[in-house]
Design brief:
This protein is of the alpha/beta class and 592 residues long. Helices cover 33% and strands 15% of the residues. It has 18 helices and 15 strands. The longest helix has 29 residues. The termini are far apart. 32% of the residues are buried.
């Protein structure tokens, strides 16, 4: 009975324990503890959680400084010279990481209308065929297969040979041997190459490099399964281009390998200045699908033209922005790729964007296309004619490399790739038999622009008068001053400096008190940078918030060159492909 009465009084706010005197300095700190078990206390007001501030004027030591010639300034507290910003303008400008990209609802509705008449089981089977085609051409596969115990003996000798220092042993030792399928032997793993994957459609067979021709069924499977991912990647890359080159507003686009028009959807969401679009795709079914997509979205109508082929000196194909998205790796040979890249560059008035899958072979295709464009531009004149318009000669890389040097991943077991998360619509989840509505798409890309690279302005002294204001005034004018009182840089200044910022090529490793990042530097090297809290608090804070693919302007405390990106000594993967089994065996057992 007494317990019930006590509970009623406590809820009414009447019951309380006998008052106990507590010092004011300790009283607030005692309130920080949970009061759920302190039965006699009422709810603590928010004002009581403020830390206790003693009155310095009543302190005995305060009078000792009255004889000093010092006048207290009320505005002195407004100047904070040790402010750690929640991200600088340079870090925000160089941020490439983007959260989950959602396919716009009108585009999702148009795709659903295009695939509504397709059988679900047939679409699933065609989707697996497309995945097999992508996986077969994604990695460099060795020639032939091994033969039982002899293969394992050769592999053991090869590992011992690699450990002695001729080639990088980690490429083979860290690589797991594939489990032999029924009726076949274990494959020999060659340094720089990967074993051929097994088919998803026919699980008991190994894949050989092949490409699928897109008919109506394959087109429906591609649109349902891959269109959201291609849109997300194109949106990320084009958003970076719009940030890095603020004055670039393309009015015309040439899309090679347009498919259903994913790159155009992304370009329209990034720029509102697009007025003309030319799409090229060798598949008649893809062109029909793109036309139907345009009909389903009347709000995205513009002057468009869809073609089957791109011929040299073809009229009405020159554009400010030329895009090739997930197409180059599906071309039959390197010679065809070089011819295609040259034609695309000849039709480019300003910027060329090449995007492909984030696998070893597609990344190599994109890297070789960049090297070939740099070689072409070095042989051109100061001005060239693109159609009837004269444009400046030369070329420079906007992203992802901060230089025009060779790709540092050439002849190494690594490759450049980036990631983008995308929300899967319901039709994509059904096609892929997935329970998750989120997907991570790996891709490689390069953005090439006409003209020479802007000069490096990082070491140039600013001749404008130094501007520094109080924190109070900076809060009133945030568009001109940072929270610590320094003047903000303009978009043009950040755009010029960003050409020489290193790029983070892997997800940063966060540890207690320090952050480790792998970056591609201006010198064309891959280095591992370490940022510590004691060295530079602002750089440490920004490094903890950095992501894969971002440009990072800060300097590290220490840096070392990454051995994984060191070129492999010995034959290249292309040379190994041309060797027969006897030549490879003699190479592994040679004493040199």
């Amino acid at each position: 009975m007494w317990a019930v009465r006590r509970a009623v009084l406590r809820n009414a706010g009447v019951w309380s324990r006998p008052a106990v005197w507590i010092r004011p300095a300790v009283r607030v700190h005692s309130m920080r503890f949970s009061t759920s078990r302190m039965r006699g206390l009422k709810q603590v007001p928010d004002s009581a959680w403020t830390p206790y501030k003693p009155d310095y004027e009543d302190h005995d030591d305060y009078e000792k400084h009255e004889d000093l010639d010092y006048e207290r300034d009320d505005d002195f507290d407004d100047y904070n010279f040790d402010v750690i910003l929640r991200g600088t303008d340079e870090v925000r400008f160089g941020r490439k990481h983007m959260g989950l990209v959602v396919l716009p609802q009108p585009i999702a509705d148009a795709i659903a209308a295009c695939i509504s008449e397709t059988n679900g089981h047939t679409m699933r089977h065609d989707y697996l065929r497309l995945v097999d085609a992508h996986r077969s051409s994604s990695e460099i596969t060795p020639k032939g297969k091994g033969r039982g115990q002899k293969t394992r003996r050769l592999l053991r000798d090869e590992r011992e040979r690699l450990e002695r220092g001729n080639w990088d042993s980690r490429e083979v030792i860290d690589m797991k041997m594939p489990r032999a399928l029924p009726g076949e032997r274990v494959q020999i793993v060659i340094p720089g190459e990967r074993p051929a994957p097994a088919s998803l459609v026919y699980p008991k067979t190994r894949l050989k490099p092949h490409v699928i021709e897109y008919g109506p069924a394959e087109t429906a499977a591609y649109v349902a399964a891959f269109a959201p991912g291609t849109y997300a990647v194109a949106f990320n890359v084009l958003s970076e281009l719009a940030m890095r080159v603020p004055g670039f507003k393309p009015s015309s686009i040439l899309d090679f390998g347009c498919g259903p028009g994913s790159a155009l959807w992304a370009a329209q969401d990034v720029w509102s200045s697009v007025q003309k679009y030319v799409g090229i795709d060798s598949s008649e079914a893809m062109i029909d699908c793109a036309k139907r997509m345009f009909d389903e979205m009347p709000e995205r109508q513009l002057d468009r033209e869809l073609l089957r082929y791109l011929a040299p000196d073809q009229p009405n194909t020159h554009a400010d922005l030329v895009i090739s998205s997930f197409t180059l790796s599906e071309l039959p040979s390197d010679a065809v790729r070089q011819t295609t890249v040259e034609m695309l560059w000849n039709n480019t008035r300003n910027t060329l964007v090449l995007i492909d899958r984030g696998a070893p072979n597609p990344a190599r295709v994109v890297s070789e296309a960049r090297d070939y464009l740099i070689k072409l531009a070095s042989e051109s004149n100061s001005t060239v004619n693109v159609g009837s318009i004269s444009v400046p000669g030369g070329i420079h890389t906007v992203a992802p490399f901060p230089n025009e040097l060779d790709d540092p991943s050439n002849n190494t077991p690594a490759w450049f790739q980036f990631v983008q998360r995308v929300q899967r619509p319901m039709f994509t989840m059904r096609t892929k038999h997935s329970k998750s509505n989120a997907e991570v798409v790996h891709y490689s890309y390069v953005i090439m622009r006409r003209g020479e690279r802007p000069p490096d302005s990082r070491g140039v002294l600013d001749t404008t008068p130094y501007s520094y204001v109080s924190v109070r005034e900076a809060q009133n004018r945030p568009e001109k001053y940072l929270p610590d009182g320094t003047q903000r840089k303009t978009m043009e200044q950040l755009a010029r400096e960003a050409y020489y910022w290193p790029r983070i090529i892997m997800q940063p490793i966060k540890r207690k008190g320090h952050v480790v990042t792998d970056v591609c530097t201006v010198d064309g090297k891959i280095e591992r940078w370490t940022f510590t809290k004691t060295h530079d608090k602002q750089a440490y804070r920004d490094a903890r918030k950095a992501s894969w693919g971002d440009l990072f302007p800060h300097l590290p405390k220490s840096s070392i060159e990454r051995s994984h990106f060191t070129p492999v000594e010995g034959p290249t993967p292309e040379e190994l492909k041309k060797m027969n089994r006897k030549q490879r065996r003699s190479l592994m057992h040679s004493d040199d």
